[in-house]
Amino acid sequence: MNTLSAKHLIVIMLTLLLGLAACGGQEESETSLEVAPDAPAVTETTEEVTETAVEPVATVEEASQPAETDTTAPAETGGGSVTSSTVTALVDLNIRSGPGTRYVAVDILTANNQAAVIGRSADGKWWKIACPSGAAVECWVSAGTQYSRAVNAESVPVAAAPSAPSSPGSTAVAQTTATSPAAAPPAATYTAAAPVNSTATATAPANSTATATAPAGNEPTATPTITTVPPTPTLEPSPTVDAPTSNDDGDSANNPATSFVFNFNQGNVGAVSRTYNDAISYPNGDTEDWIELRPQADAGSVALDMRLTCSNAYANSDQQIRATIWENGAERTDLQARCNGVTIGMPLVGNRTYLIRIHFVGDGPYYSRYSLTLDNARIGN
Predict the structure, then answer these.
(1) Does 233 share its domain with 104?
(2) Do the beta carbons of residue 359 and residue 321 sit within 8 Å?
(3) For residue 164, is it within any domain?
(4) Looking at the predicted structure, is the pLDDT value of residue 294 above 70?
(5) pTM for the whole thing?
(6) CATH number of 263's domain
């Protein structure tokens, strides 16, 4: 009996302890649930971080658009200026159908405008260009440095010149100035007034503009109004003319061309006049002439007058010719006549042989005919 009661007592106590333990566990669970309302704040923070992380993607896409533009633009600009050959007109310059003024003018390259160089003449005096107006003929402009300036044209090939016209001609090219409200009307062909003794047929360039007036609400009419502007005359290089060349007569200081003798021992010597005519040139041909002068006089001192005149001189050759006295193998610079007809007096010594040298001074080229005259012989100075 006592043993059974003791067991029942133990079971009852264990049951109470288990019940107390169960009540204590429920309170701890409820206490932990009180922290749960803070969980959504973590979720919201995570969403904000996610949205912030997406924004740099949009920024990269926006920055990629200018990169495409920067890559394309320089490629278009840089290519042409390095390899193209161009010529710029320094004045309003005639465009001709061939390399020379004997070819007709087909257009005008106005001052400060450029054209592409595609060739050059064999003598390097003309550029062959791409026709600005799209003309069916060849286009050439002068390469003279006073008329045009070329860039990157040192190695352009030599272009064959077209057949030269039978006679020089001139073609006037009209310039038209106006604006069109719609598409440009078709090119017009017409005949422009030309100076006397010349024929001028003008074709409006393909790139010319014309004025077309259209009624309100209708398409513009196809009839252009064209204003003809005479071409501006352009100075072009003159053809190169070489200096004439005189025939070499083989004379020298040791072999004069002629000899002038004045005998002062005879009367009336003052009435004697000697003249020598010839031509010299430089640097080619007969570059100088030599004349011997022999005053025969028992008197110690005599005198003569000398004059030099010129004709048919090339350029300024008449200003560069001299007649100089040589005595005892040396030049007498004080006895020198110029080609201006001025008479110089020459004091001489009787019975002495002199030489007169006719020559040019300077680099040339020179050519001139001359006439040397000695007269007014007299005893004394």
Answers:
(1) yes
(2) yes
(3) yes
(4) yes
(5) 0.40
(6) 2.60.120.380
